[in-house]
Amino acid sequence: MIDLEGDDIRRLIAADRDRAPLPVEWSDVVARSARRAESRRRPVLAAAAAIVAIGLAGMIVVGVRDGGGDTADLPPAPTAADRSPETTVVTGTAADPLADLGDGDWVVPSPLPDGYRRLAASVGSPTGRRSQIFVHAGNERQIRLDVGERGSVPDDADEVLIGGVAWLRWTSSSTEGGDDGNVQLERTLDDRTVTLRTETANAVVLDEFARSLVVVPGDEIDFEYLDPDGFHTVVATIELDDGAATLGVQGIDGFFCWRIGYDGASGRTEARGACDNTTTPERPLATLGYLRVGDGTFVAVLADPSVDRFEVEAADGDIVSIEPRDELGQFDHGFWLGTGGVAGSLLGSDTVTVHFDDGSVVEVQAGPAGDWAVVGRESDSGSDDAEPEP
Fold it and tell me: Would you say 249 and 255 are in contact if contact means Cβ atoms under 8 Å apart?
């Protein structure tokens, strides 16, 4: 045992104090913390995006897998305040969460603003250079997020700063002189453009989503998404003397990609469409697309699960009743693939009568996006005189 007197102890403390480093200023501590947080930002945000996968049935929370490391070293998940200009300012400039967008990366809202849920997503090419995410509140589609090629921006678009980042914002009115149209936000990153749009004239909602956007590598996306180049299930077929036509779809939670193919004597002809096709009881039908082969045209229609049949007036004045269905019974929605005079009448019609499973009957009107919206409602006439068209 070493016996130290009081003077000896005081001399040891003084010597240790002289060897100690100078105190660290608080500003240096904050600066180092900011640098560490910035280096960890992308994996943390990817983990935040991974905890939510949403469907029509409601919210599904997917747990983040514990990698076995020291969780004490992980920074807390970012909050809305963390993304505000006041807390993301580093060396005098606002941090841009989309600055590192690369090929194969996704732009996702994370976390989703309160009350919203992710319904569906799609990728437009194998490289992931085009992606779409559809976000809903309640039963209506409210927000659509697109990453792709630059679109057409009106001359009167306003430049606005959101979270310290410049966006272009404008409203496209659905009525002449009105303000009830779609609000859009757009910004370009190198050769790709990020676009947010809402079906309601609510710029505040879009601003909130713009602040929530982060970049997540494609191989870290853990929710299902549609791929127009992927496998399609055949749901309708037309057999003709000189060949056969098929309608194939790929669907997740009520959103569908589509592909019409015709196999004839000269080989296969095909048409395909995007993956943003869906229905609601107020928009119960959607014209998916059409394929022209020689002098003929094939038309494909998507019908809401609540639809029993719809009626089209043919060129001769006869009413043709069509029952949409799924040949394999894989989807709740119904599908119809038609050709000849009935298909031509449908393409040329402004209104169609829809009969629902509950017996109600509505008139729907064709919209510019191929959807048919309800314009009138009446009680079921109970008439079954028309012969259903396959």
Answer: no
Q: What share of the chain is helix, strand, coil (3-state, %, to 5)?
A: 20, 45, 40
Other C-beta atoms closer than 10 Å to the C-beta of 24 total: 9
Q: Strand order in 243-252's β-sheet? A: 233-240, 243-252, 255-264, 267-272
Average pLDDT over residues 166-176: 75
Whole-Å CA distances, 95 to 12, 111, 160, 210 = 48, 17, 16, 14
SS3 179: coil
Rounded to whole angstroms, the Cα distance separating 99 from 134 reads 22
Confidence (pLDDT) at 199: 73
Around Cβ 258, how many Cβ atoms within 10 Å?
A: 25
The pLDDT, as a whole number, for residue 140 is 55
Query: Which of 303, 308, 234 has its CA nearest to residue 270?
Result: 234
Which SS3 state, helix, strand or coil, does residue 184 take?
strand
pTM, two decimals, is: 0.67
| Contact in structure between 229 and 126 (CB atoms under 8 Å) | yes
**Please, which pLDDT band fits residue 192 given cuts at 50, 70 and 90?**
confident
Q: Report how far residue 57's alpha carbon sits from residue 50's, in angstroms, rounded to the nearest whole number.
A: 19
